[in-house]
Write a structure and sequence with these properties.
CATH architecture of the largest domain: 3-Layer(aba) Sandwich
Distance between the termini: 78 Å
Number of helices: 6
Helix content: 10-25%
Strand content: 25-35%
Structural class: alpha+beta
Strand order of the largest sheet: 1-4-3-7-2-10
Number of strands: 28
CATH class of the largest domain: Alpha Beta
Shape: elongated
CATH topology of the largest domain: Lysozyme-like
């Protein structure tokens, strides 16, 4: 089977483009040139056009003109432990860096089919930092996957790409660029900010995918590639040490999420108690009277706060147990944990975890009997034949509601797989007005609605 090859993006200007293939040309078939005019951004709001980016701010996706219609990847999240440095291996965007970034975005999202730009941040020669991957901090990128070892280094890392090509090996770069002082300083500043935010020292190492690796490293440390090029690679140690000096001088109270026994899936009937670990990566001892851990279900606002029963010295790890109040409807939810010291968030302590909550209760309505019309004042009889199709028993106390009002209660546990017939005299009918009446029946266990139990009837009441 023929293999598909693509070049890195080539940024050119002019009205026409010519290309020439050399070497074993007989092996080349179906050449396709993909052209994308990245100099024309999509519509941006008046506000975003008025905002002028500076070297100390991050230019948002809207500001650099990301066309969100190209994006089909929805963010996954993991707490970053490493920063991976790249080059884009194309033009450095000195004439129009935003157009260059739009070109990289189109290449990643559309041509390569990744659904978004791979890097979390990009930096131009003037030292301006640009938002990359959609989703903000902790979003898993697409910048460092090793296909030989099947290791996804995107998980738990921040991908930072410097615009340009910096490898001096012959043929590696059309033009070999030079790292500017502004670009290098912006890289240091970004590393300092993110390492302080997530609590890892830029000059240290740590175990990642079973290997002890620097906390700030290059793409070629993880895969068979020239990236980020020799021009950047030889500066890495200086970048690490400079960022490390700033990191050490800034952190006093700093935490790092160290793990938990959180599951990815729960049942609505679960009442989980979870244990989380945090490491004190700051220079100050945490006093137990000053700190609490908050566990919050974002979508419902339910939260629990847990106090510390011991002081935590620098580099020590503490385990904290908390109950979790699950929602009453199934779906995917975000659980956020964070430490607070004297009411203020502790840097690096925020951690988010997506949990899927499933409803174990389900029935199948097999047969129903209810007259379609009655005379005013009559009491009709309703018969429901149902099977418990859920994964657990329906407990005694399960109720049947009519238009939100309880009209019957199941007296005994209803085993999974068991069929049950329920016959009721609807005395409520004496209050129904003449005309068409809509009846909505639904079963509930506490506040949890039994799946597929909702049954709707329309009955006519005649004078």
């Amino acid at each position: 089977m023929a293999e598909l090859y693509t070049t890195v993006p080539l940024f050119v200007s002019g009205q026409t483009v010519r290309y020439k293939i050399t070497g074993q040309t007989e092996a080349v078939q179906n050449v396709r040139l993909i052209y994308f005019d990245s100099t024309i951004p999509p519509y941006r709001s008046v506000l975003s056009r008025l905002l002028s980016p500076t070297s100390t701010s991050v230019v948002s996706r809207e500001q650099w003109g990301a066309d969100e219609s190209y994006r089909f990847w929805e963010p996954d999240y993991q707490t970053p432990k490493k920063i991976v440095i790249h080059h884009t291996a194309g033009g450095d965007g000195s004439d129009d860096p935003m157009a260059t970034i739009r070109g990289v975005y189109y290449w990643h999202a559309v041509v390569l089919g990744w659904g978004d730009i791979g890097y979390n941040y990009l930096i131009d020669p003037a030292g301006t930092v640009y938002e990359g991957r959609y989703g903000g901090d902790g979003a898993v990128g697409a910048h460092a996957y090793n296909s030989y070892t099947d290791t996804n280094y995107n998980e738990g890392s921040i991908g930072v790409a410097l615009l340009g090509c910096y490898e001096d090996t012959e043929g590696a770069c059309t033009t070999v660029d030079t790292v500017t002082a502004e670009m290098q300083q912006a890289t240091v500043d970004l590393i300092t900010e993110k390492s302080n935010q997530f609590g890892f020292n830029p000059t240290s190492t740590g175990t990642w995918f079973g290997v002890d690796l620097p906390n700030v490293l290059s793409h070629q440390d993880l895969d068979y590639t020239y990236c980020p090029g020799s021009g950047i690679y030889q500066l890495l140690e200086t970048i690490r040490s400079t960022a490390g000096n700033a990191y050490t001088s800034q952190r006093r109270y700093q935490a790092m999420y160290a793990g938990s026994d959180l599951a990815d899936e729960y049942s609505l009937t679960d009442t989980p108690s979870i244990t989380l670990q945090y490491t004190n990566v700051g220079r100050k001892t945490w006093k137990k009277a000053d700190l609490v851990m908050q566990v919050r279900m974002n979508e419902t606002g339910e939260r629990n706060r847990v106090g510390f029963d011991t002081d935590v010295t620098p580099d020590a790890t503490v385990s904290l147990a908390s109950s979790v109040t699950l929602p009453t409807t199934p779906g995917d939810y975000t659980l956020t944990t964070r430490l607070y010291r004297k009411g203020q968030p502790v840097k690096g302590s925020k951690h988010t975890h997506t949990v899927s909550v499933a409803n174990p209760y389900s029935i199948k309505v097999i047969n129903t009997q209810l007259p379609v019309a009655i005379k005013s004042g009559w009491v009709p009889t309703l018969t429901l034949v149902m099977r418990n199709t859920g994964t657990v028993d329906l407990p005694a106390g399960t109720v049947l509601e009519l238009n939100g009002t309880v009209i019957a209660t199941i007296a005994k546990d209803w085993s999974a797989g068991q069929k049950k017939s329920l016959t009721l005299n609807l005395t409520e009918a004496t209050q129904w007005p003449v005309g068409l009446n809509t009846l909505v029946f639904k079963m509930k266990v506490d506040k949890i609605t039994v799946q597929q139990s909702r049954t709707v009837f329309v009955i006519r009441v005649d004078e």
